[in-house]
Write a structure and sequence with these properties.
By secondary structure, the chain is α+β, with helices and mostly antiparallel strands. It has a single domain, classed as Transcriptional Co-activator pc4, Chain A (Roll). Helices cover 25% and strands 47% of the residues. It has helices at residues 50-66, 124-129, 133-145; strands at residues 2-6, 9-17, 29-37, 40-48, 70-74, 81-87, 94-105, 110-121. α1 (50-66) packs across α3 (133-145). The longest helix has 17 residues, at 50-66.
Length: 146
């Protein structure tokens, strides 16, 4: 599980890659996110295209090595997830900012629920990201082929 935290603030994201090569979604990822940021919290489940996840993972690797730039991830369905991880040059720390949400269906209505979040975190937390199997798999697949 990818996890960034700072005090009571945290972002947790789990990723399950679709491994069934007979499906159109092969290589895409089912993602779950939980976030708590400065008193606001939420969770959501959504899908991410393989190429978007590959770009995110390779950007994370580049971000950690260069200590500058950003990595962006967004869901297939609009507004279910938009997340940016970026460097903060003035402090050497990183920040995670974004939004996540989903539609809640009631008996007679549907209501969009979402949360915006953002907080800084220590650079040492980036080292744990590279131990995740999906980051290794997709972060190196675009580097070696592209």
């Amino acid at each position: 599980m990818l996890r960034f935290h700072n005090g009571h603030n945290y972002l947790e994201m789990s990723v399950e890659i679709d491994e069934d090569n007979s499906l159109q979604s092969y290589g895409d990822a089912a993602v779950s996110i939980r976030v708590h940021s400065h008193g606001f919290s939420g969770n959501s489940d959504f899908w991410v295209f393989r190429n978007v996840l590959e770009s995110f993972c390779s950007s994370l690797i580049a971000l950690e090595h260069a200590q500058e730039g950003e990595a962006f991830l967004e869901s297939i369905s609009p507004n279910e997830l938009n997340i940016t991880i970026r460097t903060l040059s003035s402090s050497g720390n990183f920040a995670v900012v974004g939004t996540t949400g989903h539609m809640i269906y009631e008996k007679n209505s549907k209501i969009w629920h979402s949360v915006s979040f953002g907080f800084e975190f220590e650079p040492s937390q980036m080292h744990e990201v590279f131990k995740l199997p999906w980051v290794k798999r997709y972060g190196t697949s675009t580097i070696s082929t592209g």
